[in-house]
Structures are given as C-alpha cells and as structure tokens.
Amino acid sequence: MPTRLFFELSTDKKAQIVDAGISEFSEYGYENSSTNRIVKKSGISKGSLFKYFPTKEDLYFFLLDTVTTELTESLEKDAAALSTKLFQRVIEYSILEFSWYIKNPEKSRLVIGAFAKRDTEIYRKTIERYGIMESDIYYKLLEEVDLSNFRCDRQKAVDILKWFLKGFNEDFLQHIQNSNSSFESLQREYVQSLTEHMEILENGLWK
C-alpha cells in the first residue's frame, strides 16, 4: 500500500503516477511490467517511486483497488434501475459492466488481466484479496428480487446460479485475454451467450 509520502503529493503528481501505473499494468500485466517505464511515464525517479510504494506489488494492488472500487461504485449507482426479475437482472447487470469497460478501456484491461485465470503467485493473491468482493457482487444481484419461484431449495438454486456465473465469467475473461475484438463486439458475444444460458437455467430452476 502507499506510504504517507504518496498522499502528501499534489493531486496532479498522484494522478500522473496512477495513470502511468494503470497504463503499464494494463498493457504488460503484472509479471512483464517495468517500474522503469512507470517512472519514465510519470516523470519521477525510481527512488521516489519506492518511497511512495515499497514494492511493485504494493503499487499494483493500490491501482487495482482504485479501479475495482470505481467499477463497483459505478455498477451500484446504476443497479437500482435493473429488472427485479432474476435472470433478466443478471443479463442487464452484465450489460452495465461491459458498458463501463467500453468507456474505460485501459482500466478494463487492468481488471480483466488481473482476474483472468492463470497459474501465478500474483493471481492467487488477487483471488484471495478479492474473493469477498466477488461474493458481495453475487448477493447484490439478488437484492430486491423475488426468489420464491425456484423449483428446488432456494439456497441450492442460488448456489447453482453463483457457480455458473463464476465459471462462465472465468472462461470469458480468458477468451477476452486471447481476443483482438473490440469491447463492443465482445459485449454482444457475451450477452448473447449469457442470455442463452440464462434461458436454460430459468427453464430448469424457475417455476
């Protein structure tokens, strides 16, 4: 996490460091990123950077915290307008999320790169760090939704939906990592596939 010295910087200087870090990690990922490029882009010395962030990992998670907070706050602000019908709500939520990706491509690449499944230590730390946030998102989706129409035990049905979304999103994040398509094109692909799967789940779980 940042040291006190970082927060004592001017707003403009903090923004330069944040923007340079997001640009670097979104383009190269954590493993291939370079603090040399970050300090060059932000106009500070390498020694100064490590006075503000003791390690590259500290900088990375500070930026990821900043961006994921911005994303979740944006989604929460617009969530009140979502359908109260469960399966339609899931689809509309995904449209909101991709709309944010389209408006914030660099930040989106940072988030997608961080959560795309891979066998690295930084990925394991990321999942450990943000696992609770992921659960919160699933439960927020269920707020103001009537769950009485499930054919089976309500909690089991919710678990099935949660497990599906977790696996579906992990697979699609991996697909995005390997795709050169625009976020607009990926949004259409994601929503179409998600809608088809939601229809199957609704027919199986809903009365």
Write a concise synopsis of the structure shown.
With 207 residues, the protein is mainly α.
CATH architecture of the largest domain: Orthogonal Bundle
Share in helix: over 70%
State the secondary-structure class: mainly alpha
Main β sheet profile = none
Amino- and carboxy-terminal Cα gap: 49 Å
Shape: elongated
pLDDT averaged residue by residue: 89
The total of helices stands at 10
Task: Write up this protein.
- With 207 residues, this protein is mainly α.
- It folds into two domains: 1-54, Arc Repressor Mutant, subunit A (Orthogonal Bundle); 57-205, Tetracycline Repressor, domain 2 (Orthogonal Bundle).
- 76% of the residues lie in helices and 0% in strands.
- The protein has helices spanning 4-7, 11-28, 35-42, 46-52, 56-79, 86-103, 105-115, 121-141, 154-177, 183-205.
- Helix 2 packs across helix 7.
- The longest helix is centred in the first third of the chain and has 24 residues, at 56-79.
- The N and C termini lie far apart (49 Å).
